[in-house]
Amino acid sequence: xxxxxxxxxxxxxxxxxxxxxxxxxxxxxxxxxxxxxxxxxxxxxxxxxxxxxxxxxxxxxxxxxxxxxxxxxxxxxxxxxxxxxxxxxxxxxxxxxxxxxxxxxxxxxxxxxxxxxxxxxxxxxxxxxxxxxxxxxxxxxxxxxxxxxxxxxxxxxxxxxxxxxxxxxxxxxxxxxxxxxxxxxxxxxxxxxxxxxxxxxxxxxxxxxxxxxxxxxxxxxxxxxxxxxxxxx
Length: 233
Fold this sequence. Notes:
Elements: E1 16-19, H1 25-38, H2 40-43, E2 47-51, H3 61-73, E3 77-82, H4 89-94, E4 98-100, E5 129-131, E6 140-143, E7 148-150, E8 159-162, E9 166-172, E10 175-178, E11 188-193, E12 197-200, E13 203-206, H5 207-210, E14 219-224, E15 227-232
C-alpha cells in the first residue's frame, strides 16, 4: 500500500496587497523603498498580491515586469496578481504568479457527493482561543472562526490572527490581524500598544503611524470606513 505523500488544507496566510494606481519606474521604486524602510521587519520577504483593479489606464506587459522586478529587488515576494486583464494573463503566468479574480469572494469546495442538508438557523459557535504563554518572535497563532485571547506579551516578529476579535493582556509588539476572513466589525484590544502592524479585515496601519496614536498605552483599534482608528482605553 502506497504511503500518503501529502495533505491539502485551507489556511490563513498573511499577504500584503498592493493596489496599483499608476506607474512611473523611478517614482514607483522610490515610493516603495520608502514604504519598506518604514517597517523593514514586516515587509522583509513578505508575500505580495498585486491588485490591478484600480489601475488608471492599461498596464503594459513590460511595465508589469518592471513592477514585479522592483518588488523582488526590494525584498518582497510577489505571489499573485488580482484583476488581471486578458492581455496580461500570459505575462502573469511567465512571471510565475497566480491570477486571482477581482472580487473578494472565496471559492467554495467542490462536493463529490451531495452534501447533507444543514439547518441554516443553527448557529456556528466556536469558543475563544486562549493562549496563556508569551507569543515569541517567529511564532504565529491563529484563532479560526473565533476570538483570540492572549494572556501574555506578543513579541516583536510574532504574528497573531483571528477571524474575530483579538485581546492582548500584555504588550503587543508584533503583528495583530483581526477579522482575517473579512469581518469589518472585528476589533483589537491591548494593554500596551507597540505593534509593528495592526490589521482589520485586510486594512492595516504600520508602526510609524501607530507611534502617533496611543503609543505604549492601553489601546483599542477598530475599522471606520476604510481607515483603522486607534484610541486609548
